[in-house]
Amino acid sequence: MLGCCSDIQGGIFVLLKLILEGIWEYIISPIGWIGVGFFFIMAVLAQFYRAKSSKEEAKNVEVVITSIANKKVRGALFECIDNTRKIMGVSPLVLINEGSELTSELEGKIGKEKIILVPEGFKKKLKGKGRALCFFIKWIAKSDAWYVFLDDDTKLLDRKFMSEISYYKEKGYSVANGIIVPREGKSKMTYIMDFIRYFDDLFIYRFFTGLLGKPLLGLHGDLLIIEGSVLKNIDLDKASVAEDYVFAVELIRKKCKTWQSKSHISFLSANSLPDLAKQRKRWSQGMKENFNDSPILMKLAIIFRTIIGGLWTVGAITVLLIPLLGVAHLVVPAAVYPLEYVLKMVFFTIPAGIYIWIVYIYGIAKAKKWLYLILIVIFGILEVAPDFSNKRDEEFVVIDKN
C-alpha cells in the first residue's frame, strides 16, 4: 500500500513537472521571444527616423520653466535660467506657486514680469507640476504661440527645435519631445543608471513619439514643445503625480501628431539612490493611477514596456550564467547540469540582457567608474523595483537638485 502511494505521488510530481515545463516552453518562452524580437525590430526601425527642419526658425515661441522654487532646487533652477538665456537669447518665463521660497530672488534675477504665480487657492486637489500647468493652460497660454516647457534641472544643449517647429507646424504636427542626456550630480551610480533613459529615447521613444507620431509610452517633461492652440484644449484637471503621462493620454485621445526633435537636453541625475527610487516610484505610480483611463493602444504599449523591463533585468542575470558555466566545468562539474538547465529555461532573455549590459557599460565608461561593472545586475533590479511597489505617495515628491 505504501509503495502504491509513493508511486502515485511520484506520478503526480512527474505530471506537474511536465505541465510546468510545457507552460514555460509553449507559453512563457514564446511570449518572451516575441517581446524581445519586437523590441529589436522596433529599435532598428526607429533608427531610420530623423526630425526635419525648415530654413527659418519659428517666431512667437516662449520658453517656460516650471519649478517648486524652494531651496532644494535653487542651484539647478538658477543654472537652468542662465543656460536658457545663453541658448535662446532671452530670459524664460518661470512658473511657480504663490509664496514660493525663491520668489524674491527670482524677481531680482529675471524681473517680476517673467514670473507667473499660481494662486494658493487654485485647484488644491491637483498635485505639483500638474497643478501649475493646469493654471498656465487656463489663464496664460495663447492659441497663436508655441511653448517650450523645461523642468527646473534641465539645460538646453541646442535650439534645433526652433527650425523644426516651422517645418512641422505646416505638416499639422503639434507636439514634440527632445532627446534627454543625463548630467552627473552627486552620485555616480544614479548617473550611470540614468543612461537607460537616454537609450530609451534613442530606441523606444524614437519609435513611438517619432516614427509613429504617437506618444504611446508618455512624454518627457524635460523638453516638451507644444502648439498653444492644442495646449489650451488639454485637460490636466486630474490629481496625478505624473502629469506628463496624463498629457500624453490627452494627446492620444485628440489624435495629435508628435515628432521627436533632434534637440538634446541635459537633465540632472538624482543625488542619491533613495532620491532616484522616489523619482522612479512617482513615474510608476502615475502610470498605474492613469492606466485604466488610457486608450487601448497606450495600455498595450505600457504592458509591452513593462514586460521588456522585466526581461532586461532577468536577462542581465542570465548573461552571468554563461561565465559561471565555464567555471563550473573546471571547478564544480556537479553544478554544470543545474546551471545548464536554468540557462536553457531562460535563454530567451539573453538578447535583452546583452542590451542592458551595453547600456550600463556605456554609462560606466562615461562615469569612468569601471569598478561598478560588478553592480550592473543590481542596477537592473533597482530600475524595475518601483514597478512592484503598491505603496502610494499622496503628495508630489520633490527631490534635492542642488
Short description:
This protein is α/β, with parallel strands linked by helices and 402 residues long. The protein has helices at residues 2-46, 74-88, 103-110, 128-139, 161-170, 188-193, 195-212, 228-231, 243-253, 273-290, 296-331, 336-345, 350-367, 376-384, and strands at 61-66, 93-97, 115-118, 146-151, 154-156, 175-183, 223-227, 258-268.
Summarize the SSE layout with pairings.
Layout: H1 2-46, E1 61-66, H2 74-88, E2 93-97, H3 103-110, E3 115-118, H4 128-139, E4 146-151, E5 154-156, H5 161-170, E6 175-183, H6 188-193, H7 195-212, E7 223-227, H8 228-231, H9 243-253, E8 258-268, H10 273-290, H11 296-331, H12 336-345, H13 350-367, H14 376-384
Parallel strand pairs: 1-2, 1-4, 2-3, 6-8
Antiparallel strand pairs: 4-7, 5-8, 6-7
Helix pairs in contact: 1-7, 1-11, 11-12, 11-13, 11-14, 13-14
